[in-house]
Amino acid sequence: MEAQDEEEAKEYLANLKISLDFVVEEIKSNINFENEIQLFQLLRLISPETNAIHPNRYRQSLVQIGLHICPDQKEVPMLVAELFYRMQTISNPILRAIYFHHELIRIHPFADGNGRVTRIAKNWMLMYDLYPPIFINDAAQKKEYITTLSNSFKELLYQPKNWNIYTEQFFEQELDRLLLNATLLYDSIYLIGINRKNKIINQQ
User: Fold this and answer.
1) What tens digit of pLDDT does each residue of 28-79 get?
2) Quick check: is 84 in a domain?
3) In a domain, 52, yes or no
4) Which domain holds residue 172?
5) N or C: where does the chain have the smaller number of CB atoms within 10 Å of the terminal CB?
6) Those residues with Cβ within 8 angstroms of residue 14's Cβ, 6 or more apart along the chain or in another chain
């Protein structure tokens, strides 16, 4: 849904496959997402054109997403380091993943590709702990997602240490998407089991 044309969509999908293959291999090697080096690894895979602008560096200019003016580029390294430090204090893997998603988008550390990197990192954390990935299913969900994040960032600008209703809404929406995907996954596994059982019965 981020691509501007069919050619760009094909490139996005190709990079997405490469990134997911990398994440799966890391999980199989018992490696979870937990440091900045991995963040740059994901950027190089999912958005190589962005990494080419500032190789292995955070953005060098001020950016704005919607009405939200992201933190000054000089603050980005410190904010990202603080984010990874705070993540260590969150024991619940679901809350940790959603919190990381919210905060990395708010910081917006890269010139481009922030959404793609963030979603891959979040789902790496979830899948490592055997949860299904969270993803946006349609344009309506994407609009809701963007609006909720924008409102949350606006409130946090004035009251940075206060949990606001929009931040709460974002967490609830992400949890709803997780529950939906868990149900779909269960249904798929159940159907596979039924088909295998029927195949065995028919062979007897």
Assistant:
1) 999 999 999 999 999 999 999 988 888 889 999 999 887 889 999 999 999 9
2) yes
3) yes
4) 6-203
5) C
6) none
- Tell me, what CATH number does 85's domain have? 1.10.3290.10
Give the DSSP per-residue string, 23-86: HHHHHHTT----SHHHHHHHHHHH-HHHHHHSTT----S--EETTEEPPPGGGHHHHHHHHHHH
Contact between 1 and 142 under an 8 Å Cβ cutoff? The reply is yes
Q: What does 175-192 look like in DSSP terms, one character per residue? A: HHHHHHHHHHHHHHHHHH
* Distance from the Cα of residue 66 to its chain's centroid: 19
Structure tokens at 87: 């993540």
Environment class of 103 (CB within 10 Å of its CB; exposed 0-12, middle 13-18, buried 19+): middle
Tokens of 22: 């990398």
Rounded to an integer, what distance in angstroms lies between the CA atom of residue 80 and that of residue 35? 10
Q: Is 58 exposed, middle or buried (0-12, 13-18, 19+ CB in 10 A)?
A: buried
Give the pLDDT confidence of 107-156 residue by residue, as tens digits: 999 999 999 999 999 999 999 999 999 988 888 999 999 999 999 999 99
CB atoms within 10 A of CB 147: 14
